[in-house]
Design a protein that fits this description.
about 220 residues, about 0% strand
């Protein structure tokens, strides 16, 4: 005789879901990022330079996502976390700008107008996330950016090593602080949904950027 037993499972926290989202949908899973990190061919330097330039176009401007979110956030725990993230990203931004100058000019690539249009749209999308009035949306985008920056930082450090530029020690908020602030800030289903949306959309912009970099590398071919 079969015995039915109800199995109680512990619900997955909003923070754990956010970390899993970044791991599953973030830049680290993109094939072109992996090829940039591992590439040793004759065009690897050119492709790295292209990546640095486009990343700088997306995240090298002030104010960025974290700063805009900080400016609009009321005082409290989220504001304090965003303040720490903003200070860290200012150092990352300076590194990115300095590295962009060090890698040389943007590689000549067919479809430059289409590239600029895509970057303008991506910057607008990120700004919209940062300015969202939905409680949790901007934090979702900011925490996704912090977590997804680690594979991006590996790419920057590889480019820096190739051109002989020093890479500063990273100072981004750690995973534990992300978990703590997400769980603290999502005390309602609406905030949890908004945070998920912000994170998903930020990761979508990063995946689109690497799609664009991959297409640009293919368009350049062997020339």
């Amino acid at each position: 005789m079969a015995i039915n037993r109800s199995v109680q499972t512990k619900p997955v926290s909003v923070a754990a879901t956010q970390l899993a989202r970044v791991a599953g949908e973030g830049s680290a899973r993109h094939s072109h990022l992996l090829s940039l990190l591992e590439g040793t061919g004759p065009h690897s330097g050119r492709d790295l330079a292209d990546a640095v330039h486009l990343l700088c176009s997306l995240h090298g401007r002030y104010p960025g996502l974290v700063e805009v979110a900080l400016q609009r956030c009321p005082k409290g725990a989220v504001h304090e976390w965003l303040g720490r993230a903003s200070d860290a990203f200012e150092r990352e931004r300076l590194y990115l700008v300095r590295l962009t100058a060090a890698v040389g000019p943007l590689p000549s690539t067919p479809g430059s107008a289409e590239t600029e249009a895509s970057l303008v749209a991506a910057r607008h999308a990120i700004e919209t996330l940062a300015m969202s009035e939905r409680d949790g949306c901007a934090l979702g985008a900011a925490t996704a950016l912090v977590c997804d920056w680690w594979p991006v930082r590996r790419l920057l450090d590889r480019a820096a090593a190739r051109v002989g530029t020093d890479a500063p020690a990273p100072s981004l908020p750690d995973e534990a602080s992300v978990v703590a602030i997400v769980d603290q800030a999502t005390d309602s289903p609406g905030a949890a949904r908004a945070l998920a949306f912000g994170g998903e959309q930020l990761l979508l912009q990063h995946r689109a950027l690497f799609d664009l970099l991959e297409a640009r590398a293919e368009a350049r071919g062997d020339f």
